[in-house]
Amino acid sequence: MNEKLELILREKYADLRKSEKRAADYLLQYEGDGRTLTLEQFAAGANVSQPTVLRFLRALGYKGFKDFRYVLAQKEPEEKENGYFLYGSTVMEGDTISELPAKLIGTSIGQLKDTLKNLSAAELEKAVTAITKARKIAVYYVENSACTASDLVTKLAYLGINCCSYSDYYLQNVSAASMEKGDLAIGISYSGCSISTVDAMRIAKKAGAKTIAITNFENTLLEKYADIVLVTSNQHFLYGDAIFSRVSQLAVVDMIYTGVLLSDYDRYTKILDRSSKIISKQAYPSQDDD
């Protein structure tokens, strides 16, 4: 399958109907010749009806099966040398340092593709709206989610949004208990099962705050206390899992940041420009080399 079609599939996946997801799953693993695939074969292979296949293709933006099959038949050069097919691989005994760039970058690229498949654009839009309307925002996290939380707080601060983060269990609980209606709690957890993060979200939700979960997996305990869920990837990796979960979570932070910016472009670009001018004073002026 060519790269363009795969990206479209992963981008639309989270918002498809259950039967349409079966069609997408079949297509993502399809290795046959796109020029010979028929509508009947597609429907049978995906275990769905032919009308479902056509509805699925329309959801992807294609006018009909012929239009889709033309794109499916297009081939792109394989990039195995760059590690693109190493997604999900782990570092093993016997690997050399020279192999690491391809392995790690290939895995990161793969997880970003998986994030595109799992992340719901509708949920992302809800998250952006909740952030822009919140009176105050508290971000809860532990351990390896620190860089994601820090990046989120920093980016929102640049846009003039009242936001802070907590990793200490006691401070998380104190903060969560003080939340009110109109406030927003964001829990970041790779597994969705981190005790302190889950507890803070539960307390914040009970206190009346709206809640957002950023996690790698669906149907987790964290999701139970979340009004909005941003799921990244469902793949497990070597310890620490966060060396790859960071990639997808930081991408989600960038999506949130850009979404907020676009929600009121004139307002937020002015705030961003003001913030950038303040920060620029903390840098030495550039000097020509002697």
TrEMBL record:
The keyword Transcription applies. Residues 127-266 form the SIS domain. Pfam families: HTH_6, SIS. One of its GO terms (biological process) is carbohydrate derivative metabolic process. Residues 3-79 form the HTH rpiR-type domain. InterPro entries: Homeodomain-like_sf, HTH_RpiR, RpiR-like, RpiR-like_SIS, SIS_dom, SIS_dom_sf, WH-like_DNA-bd_sf. It comes from the Bacteria. One of its GO terms (molecular function) is carbohydrate derivative binding. Keywords: DNA-binding, Transcription, Transcription regulation. Coiled coil: none annotated. PANTHER family: GLUCOKINASE, HTH-TYPE TRANSCRIPTIONAL REGULATOR HEXR-RELATED. This is MurR/RpiR family transcriptional regulator. It comes from Candidatus Anaerobutyricum stercoripullorum. The lineage of its organism: Bacteria, Bacillati, Bacillota, Clostridia, Lachnospirales.
